[in-house]
Protein 1
Amino acid sequence: MTTPVSIPERLFEQLKSAIFDGDIPVGSKLSEPELARDYQVSRGALREAIGRLEACRLVTRKTNVGARVVELSVENLLEIFQVRESLEGMAARLAAQFITADEIVRLESLLETHAHDIESSENQAYFQKEGDLDFHYSIVQASHNTTLFNLLCNDLYQLVRLYRYQFGMRSQRAKQAFSEHRHIVAAIKRGDGEMAEHIMRAHIRASRESVERIFIHESNDPLAAEVNA
Amino acid sequence: MTTPVSIPERLFEQLKSAIFDGDIPVGSKLSEPELARDYQVSRGALREAIGRLEACRLVTRKTNVGARVVELSVENLLEIFQVRESLEGMAARLAAQFITADEIVRLESLLETHAHDIESSENQAYFQKEGDLDFHYSIVQASHNTTLFNLLCNDLYQLVRLYRYQFGMRSQRAKQAFSEHRHIVAAIKRGDGEMAEHIMRAHIRASRESVERIFIHESNDPLAAEVNA
DNA sequence: ATTCATTAAATTGTCGACAATATTGGCCTG
DNA sequence: CAGGCCAATATTGTCGACAATTTAATGAAT
């Protein structure tokens, strides 16, 4: 017995993909009649889907005017990094305290997968499109704090994905980042919460600073931004 | 020209109040036909309002089954405290860095109001029903990080309010908490972010530990819980 | 030509009706 | 009497139509 999926739920996922892929451009208006035609659904169902997009801050709505895809800005991206540093640092510390044996196994096998991805990929602007987020997702899950999980995985990570896709961010230090992932897992495994938090924060801070350098100081090449956190 | 308010928006506020006040009991089902009758609105408008309640996690929804007011638990409350310690600590640090002169004035006048409230109130289980949250709200605002603001003020504080109302939490250390508020503002005013964060974290941690003591060790009197953070 | 008012078109907001699903209660069977 | 099946009922999901509002298009006046 699989959980039933309503039309708005499906639409929500479809619209997210369309936004991530740029089929619905950033900043553009979501026309209800148009989308209802395109996706062959009633406006009611569409409106509920848009409501969910609003909830995870991918679109903003104005009464009597309509919904638009959020505008991206470096300032907002840096804000998100700041919040992530704080929350994911905490997640790493809690994970070190509460992670289960089973979760450790899964986390290490995830690392193995990523290690393989790095080896097999020729160019260095490689793997972690979702893989990196998967790692962070797993850490948050291992914290066993559902409030924290909801904030990060339901809200923030959606925006992080949007920034990655839209800015076409690629890692400039993939091996470095991967190595940090390993150290984080090692610290968690031995129950060293202090260290896990410390590395995680440094890990995310490094990404933020990379973005700052690229976008603030000389922003000619936004395609080479940082992604590995 | 005042911003137009749609029916779902109004309903959202009304339902929130009804939930906070216990008119719609915690854990109970939100019957669409019943509520539509009571509030004299169509089910469509009601469903959108319920969607917003779901977004800030005051209700949970199951497809084809309906919406229920969230179940409260001490575990969840402690989770929220943990997240708040992390986020509000950061907010205090950022506030020390970015607060404007105007915001400092408003913050200090808020403190004066609270000081007066404490003086004029005879019993010690006094003032801060919303006043305390107002303080924390102001600090977050002064951080000038809109992402942080959204997470705390749109999502978490709603739940905090629900816990306060439902558990009838009262401060056991109001004067102590107020003094901590003063120290936080002082640190922010002199631009000492490290100190502001440190005090804020200790402030919230103290509240969490108070709740732990009351609910975990001997929980006979949930009415005397901690509220001042 | 530019601005403003007026009107026409399009879009969003709201509603009630129908379809699909879940829940309830009764009935039958073991 | 317990447990499961089936019909009846109620609730949620979905849709298309109408109303309210915003946006645009048109034209008149300065």
Protein 2
Amino acid sequence: MTAAPKRDRLAERREATRAEILNAAWEIARAGGLAAVTLREVAARVGMQPPSLYSHFASKNAIYDGMFGQAWADYLLVCRQSVASVPKPPRKALLYMVQTFVDFALVDPVRFQLMNQRMVIDFEPSAAAYAPSVQVMTLFRDQLARIGVSADGDADLCVAIVGGLVDAQLANEPGGQRWTAQLPRAMDMFADEVGLPAPRLRRRR
Amino acid sequence: MTAAPKRDRLAERREATRAEILNAAWEIARAGGLAAVTLREVAARVGMQPPSLYSHFASKNAIYDGMFGQAWADYLLVCRQSVASVPKPPRKALLYMVQTFVDFALVDPVRFQLMNQRMVIDFEPSAAAYAPSVQVMTLFRDQLARIGVSADGDADLCVAIVGGLVDAQLANEPGGQRWTAQLPRAMDMFADEVGLPAPRLRRRR
DNA sequence: GTCTATACTGTGATAGAC
DNA sequence: GTCTATCACAGTATAGAC
């Protein structure tokens, strides 16, 4: 009989503390914006002295980095769970995928800021934290290819359009839907461009 | 004989000092990013002690605000100067206008950051600084209407597409043109959507 | 390994003298 | 208007207790 898989209680506890710190940071960010995240405030919430955080994160930006990785990992999970329920018709599939992203973005604007804008002036994501976002893009390209959209630059253009709409919405009218309501129209436009079959979901004006 | 227009030398000098401060801030930002702009560095460049800056700007964000207004005012000027040279054919006109914006954005990424992203975490533009950007949008809508694009949301969609492409370019590959090279294609796509006449400038794939 | 205590540096901002 | 002096707060480094 082989030895039972050894639980590394130390590593578990360490990981739990890291998660606790990140959760506190998310709370603060959601309540007062990313700028409100200070080491002192985070430390106070987890019951530590500020310098103690350095036992778990090398710097404040390392905390942002952890949040960045978490956010993209969460979205990767959402994507994978939604793969099964993507509709078959190409245009419906396209709209479903980008709508999933937009919903994810709008439900937590601060998270979207961290994921997609370079909101925190001196923060550059590490390779490790960047990995899940690359996986998301790969998955998206695969799904696009499955409905026949695989030309160079097609995915780039699609992502730029969706990102542009969400950015404009959050920057100019947070909470509204003046821009995001144009998502179906924009995706029909894109579908026409890349030559997707099937009728338009919405008539042209 | 009427009195000569009274030159307010004091106001002139005051305005000159403000401009000097903003110029110093632009220099620093271009060299080291917006985060590098500190009151001490600005003061050093204009030969002042840091607190003296408060005689001219109420806060550091007020300096960002001044830069924001300057940037949009500059672009408004570029737009007005280019109005005369916009080509007649609708699709060419459209591409010319957005290309003007993209060129303006790419030539100074830091300026674009300040203008279009909420890069500085706690900065919200004042009404005064916001005014020229509103004028730019009004001018853009007018020019769109002149080529027959006037439906609600058309300008919004166009701006979102262009902004999305520039954002993606600067965020993922500053200095490259993987995304911005798709501008003609994207504008043809948009032109098809809004029913602009004339042949596509580029063939579909 | 983990946390505390203390301290250093740099930041934006204020008060008051000249 | 500009200066000097000073403040409160930030992120961070280090030493040492457990």
